[in-house]
Amino acid sequence: MTAFFNRFKIGLLPMYVLLAILTSSVTSCSKGELEIQNDFPFEVKMMPVPKEIANGNTVEIRLTIQSTGNYSNIQYFIRYFQFDGLGTLQYYDAPPYLPNDLYQLPTKEFRLYYTSKSTVSQSFEVWISDNFGNEKQLSFQLNSSD
């Protein structure tokens, strides 16, 4: 009789193993939800900018936004604040930006033009942000060559 039960146990062993694998695979899946990434941090690369500027002259600032992901609906914005000296900042040939106003950037690679309106050193910051709340700050210090 014992031999019969031992054979019965050995015959059920594959079924026990299959049941254990099935149970562990069902319990290891949490909720079956997809994780959707909606935050794409970015970096801003900048070409070198002159350190001096004369009153009335313009310097070109070349910028490239490099994002970690490729999301088609991402939007980038720019704003700036000047805290020393006087000058204007503009995108290509668009009208000059107003300090602290938010403007949408149409491309990830662009040029800004800063025109000096004073004979003293000038300092300003450019903030680039996206529609997910990521933000990068660029600081500029231009000495007067007058």
Question: Would you mind describing this structure in some detail?
Answer:
- With 146 residues, the protein is an alpha+beta fold.
- The protein contains 1 helix and 9 strands; from the N terminus they run αβββββββββ.
- The longest helix is centred in the N-terminal third of the chain and has 27 residues, at 2-28.
- A hairpin with a 4-residue loop joins strand 8 (122-130) and strand 9.
- The mean pLDDT is 85.
- The protein is rod-shaped.
- The strands form 2 sheets. A 5-stranded mixed sheet has the order 2-9-8-4-6, with no helix packed on it. It has a 4-stranded antiparallel sheet with strand order 1-3-7-5, with no helix packed on it.
- The protein starts with a helix and ends with a strand.
List the helices and strands and how they pair.
Blueprint: H1 2-28, E1 42-46, E2 52-53, E3 58-67, E4 76-84, E5 87-91, E6 103-105, E7 109-116, E8 122-130, E9 135-144
Parallel strand pairs: 2-9
Antiparallel strand pairs: 1-3, 3-7, 4-6, 4-8, 5-7, 8-9
In which order are the strands of the major sheet placed?
A: 2-9-8-4-6
Unreliable parts: none
Number of continuous helical runs: 1
Overall mean pLDDT = 85
Structural class: alpha+beta
In helices, the fraction of residues equals 10-25%
β content, as a range? 35-45%
Determine Rg (CA atoms, Å).
30 Å
Q: Give the biggest sheet.
A: 5 strands, mixed
Distance between the termini: 109 Å
What is the global morphology? rod-shaped
Order of helices and strands: HEEEEEEEEE
Give the quaternary arrangement of the chains: single chain
Strand segment count: 9
